[in-house]
Specification:
Strand content: over 45%
Distance between the termini: 24 Å
Shape: elongated
Number of strands: 24
Length: 300
């Protein structure tokens, strides 16, 4: 079985595959080793388990016969959400086809022009092992792309018991939202109108971007301005933000020093007669540098 090395013609393709797999909760958990019999251009994928977009999928052993080639061609063998082995045939000479949506790459096979067999040294192992590439990505609410997974041991079938926890960094990617419209007070004293709690994250130096739309309740030409301010755990984290239009306008504030359980809040106040109206409140961030905490038990 061939393996990938720097300088190999497929090395770049695999690095591209890793980049695509990282944020999507897609990887090989166990098994699924590709092998060839050396005859009839056949490749066999062993039984195993994969994860596709956060869903665990069982794979039975399957054999595929690759089409004959009129030019030296790379075919991609992958597993889809049904656990079926599929083959994506290359359309350009010695160029790896892209990984199909909702599938896990297993092998890349070099089918040479006119070849009637598929030797073992023409099969590249393309499995992206979850432990090796840290492809498990858990959202801040302890969900892994919609699937609740708080202990890696439940996925790795007893190999390791640990937690994978992400760091987060402010971005425009909406991760939590409170869309309901709410009106603040006319009084010139701030009150809390929105709150979103941060789930489990690694460390205490995370950051989020708070985005919301706000408008005045009355025409500001007659009633003046209302004001908003971003808080965390009841402590002000932004300057006072003037709401100056009866038409909804966007606001964005980056907040640092975020840790597990922090409450990201929005407060509003009026000026004695004017009120502020919030039409949507979002906490936005990217997942970065997933941290694997020390195992409590390990039988690797």
């Amino acid at each position: 079985m061939k393996t990938f090395q720097d300088g190999d013609p497929l090395f770049g393709a695999m690095m591209h595959a890793i980049a695509n797999l990282w944020p999507n909760g897609t990887a090989v958990l166990s098994g699924c080793a590709p092998t060839g019999s050396g005859s009839a251009r056949r490749v066999t994928v062993a039984a195993g388990t994969v994860v596709v977009n956060g869903a665990v999928v069982s794979v039975s052993q399957q054999t595929k016969t690759l089409d004959a080639a009129s030019f030296d061609r790379y075919d991609l063998v992958s597993v889809n959400t049904s656990g079926a082995v599929i083959v994506t045939k290359g359309v350009d000479a010695r160029r790896v086809p892209p990984v199909p949506a909702n599938s896990v790459p297993i092998a890349i096979c070099l089918v040479e022009s006119g070849a009637t067999t598929l030797p073992a040294d023409r099969i590249y192992d393309a499995r992206m092992d979850a432990l090796r590439v840290s492809a498990l990505t858990i959202d801040a609410d302890k969900n892994w792309n919609g699937k609740t997974i708080t202990n890696v041991g439940s996925v790795y079938a007893g190999k390791v018991s640990a937690k994978i926890i992400p760091e987060i960094i402010a971005s425009d990617e909406v991760r939590a939202s409170s869309p309901a419209t709410v009106t603040g007070p006319a009084a010139a004293t701030y009150i809390k109108v929105k709150e979103i709690t941060i789930g489990e994250v690694y460390g205490s130096e995370n950051s989020v971007r708070v985005k919301f739309n706000a408008r005045t309740y009355f025409n500001p030409s007659f009633s003046g301005h209302a004001y908003a301010r971003v808080y965390v755990n009841g402590v002000a984290k932004s300057d006072e933000l003037a709401i100056t239009s009866i038409d909804s306008a966007p606001f964005s504030v980056d907040v640092t020093g975020i840790k597990t359980g922090d409450k990201v809040q929005l407060y509003l106040r009026g000026n004695g007669s004017q009120m502020g109206v919030v039409d949507g409140f979002n906490v936005c961030y990217d997942l970065v540098d997933v941290a694997l905490l020390p195992a409590t038990t390990a039988t690797l």
